[in-house]
Amino acid sequence: MPDYNVTHLNQLESEAIFVLRETAAQFEKPVLLFSGGKDSIVMIHLARKAFWPARIPFPLLHIDTGHNFRETTDYRDNLASDIGAKLVVGSVQKAIDEGRVLEEKSQNASRNALQIQTLLDSLEEGQYDAALGGGRRDEEKARAKERFFSHRDEFGQWDPKNQRPELWNIFNGRMTAGEHFRVFPLSNWTEMDVWQYMKRENIPLPSLYFAHEREVVIRNGTMLAVSEFVQPREGEAIETRRVRFRTMGDATITGAVDSNADTMDLIIEEVAAAIETERGNRADDKRSESAMEDRKKQGYF
Amino acid sequence: MTTGEKSAVRGYLDMDLLRFTTAGSVDDGKSTLIGRLLYDSKAIFKDQLEAIEKTSEQRGDENMNLALLTDGLRAEREQGITIDVAYRYFATPRRKFIIADTPGHIQYTRNMVTGASTANLAIVLVDARKGVIEQTCRHSFIANLLRIQHVVIAINKMDLVEWSEERFEEIKEEFRRFASRLGNIVDVTFIPISALKGDNVVDKSENMPWYQGPSLLYHLETVYIGSDENHVSARFPVQWVIRPHSDEYHDFRGYAGRIGGGVFKPGDDIIVHPSGFGAKIKAIHTMDGELQEAFAPLSTTITLDREIDISRGDMIVKANNPPEVGQDIEAMVCWFSDKPLNGRGRFILRHTTKETKAIIRDVKYKVDINTLHKIEDDLEFRRNDIGRVSLRTAAPLVYDSYKVNRTSGSFILVDPFSNETMGAAMII
């Protein structure tokens, strides 16, 4: 009897490709949300596999807070041109300048919540009816209840108590005009799966993910990279430390971790031994017990 | 460094995946059991533990409440109940696990059905003091209806019956008597545990030397799932047609989909349904190169040796073990919607990658899932009801009995006005 065992990475890959193809088939105008982070990089790799030898049949959309690491935007532009994809950028700075959103004024102001309006505006402007995101259920407890095909009403809101059931591999993407869907092909992946998959597939990553020397300040327990957006405040000292980033968000809130992991293997070992989840150093999630759920209801990624 | 950490780098290429479901009510120790599996396999992180500690303290809970780990929504935490399916993940050096954690009360039957629909294995928790009760019956019925291949009857709270072998054997016997009415659960394993004390969860219990079997985790790690997919009847629902229109692949016309059963090889004779046209497989493509064979549940792309009209919703099969093709369908339906089903109803039916209209022509009976009795005097389907119906579809379905194939044997019913998923069904 031949061996038809399928490894966990092949199962997850097959499932994600299935979901990407369902998205292309069920919606008029999908778009892939690209943050420059590893999850969206893996998503693009999977989308290439799903439609090969044709090109990915949807554009990439980056919601740009204006507080980017340089390495992220360089990587983004190169990747989009390599795979011949159209790149659309939704600018939070522009939304602030045009007065559509108001910048937070407090000491710990963040543009995180402002992304919501820019995202919804960009989806409406492009008339996109499905936005593919790299969200995973293991990231945060509100995400653990998220569907692969997640319905959003005409205001872009998520109603977690009234979600469509998802059975087997049957996804219901029907909706009325003005509504849209968020689609999460990586729902069943864990952080470890993503790293193992990137290693197996030899997927190149932005250099920020690997350990390097960098000037940082410690603010509210989070280690922030010193940049044009983050300058030391009174009482804060600049230190040079060997660090890497576990997620790739807005530079004003995404914390670095001390690390010597400068290869994929070392990162995987570090992830295996990690004692905090990868969002554990994101200031945006620490605001309250249900910070993520509240943002998601409003239309966050 | 432990072996677990080492294997993260080296062993991951041959790890497989087990999806299991748990159902349980507030007091039966389900959260404690899951919490223990996650904690002992290091899937709970420090910041998650701290968040739970903080919340438990605010709520005035005496002990750290592990249910807070899975109850992710604010409403769930406030009301102290699980209202949805929560998916949880952990891995050991042997396997990766996906838990579909569902509430066990009868008003959440639909959630249990959802969680069971993708599971290889179900854990049914039995309180050793109470033995086989209605809830055991309900959970086993659902596991059987959804064709879960492996069932673990975890007889919990053994510490409260003085680790009694006699009590364990009594409950086994009670369950066997009841299960004989269920038909064919494929593989049942009984494990005496104490989720609270940790006995037989990860490590073998020292309190029950009379028990010779595996611990729960060892069983989850080693149960054979290689034959869970149907590798006999070849089924390929076409999802999307790939036409690159590029210079290099000018004439490429590939049929993309996820194999729903059987094995496909280049050179195989295939038939496309519902048209009935035949062709040979030219090649099986992936971005990493062509495959010499492909089987469920892999996503792949097939090219054929001649041009025939094929589009999304068609099914490519092989001549042996042909599927059924027809418009009159008999099925077991589980109702999900607040809006009841009264006699005839018109819906959009989604089956594999196909969508068509359907009318429910007849409700045969409903099942009392606590007693397994047929209900024939009240045929209105309300939320969480399960029963047998006859349907007529506008276009022919290419299907199998759910017993034979989960992919080609299942469908959902969608309300054409609200677009809500109203019910889910298994073809008889």
Description:
The complex is a heterodimer of chains A (301) and B (428). Chain A is of the alpha/beta class and 301 residues long. Chain A has two domains: 8-195 and 289-298, HUPs (Rossmann fold, 3-Layer(aba) Sandwich), CATH 3.40.50; 202-283, no CATH class. Chain A has eight helices and ten strands. In chain A, strand 7 and strand 8 form a beta hairpin. Chain A is globular and about 55 Å long. The mean pLDDT of chain A is 85. Chain B is α+β, with helices and mostly antiparallel strands. Chain B folds into three domains: 3-222, Rossmann fold (3-Layer(aba) Sandwich); 235-318, Elongation Factor Tu (Ef-tu), domain 3, CATH 2.40.30; 324-427, Beta Barrel (Elongation Factor Tu (Ef-tu), domain 3), CATH 2.40.30. In chain B, the strands form four sheets. In chain B, strands 7, 8, 9, 11, 12, 13, 15 and 16 form an eight-stranded antiparallel β-sheet that branches. A six-stranded mixed β-sheet of chain B has the order 2-3-1-4-5-6, sandwiched between helices. A six-stranded antiparallel beta barrel of chain B has the order 17-21-19-18-22-23. The relative contact order of chain B is 0.10. Classes of the chains: A alpha/beta (301), B alpha+beta (428).
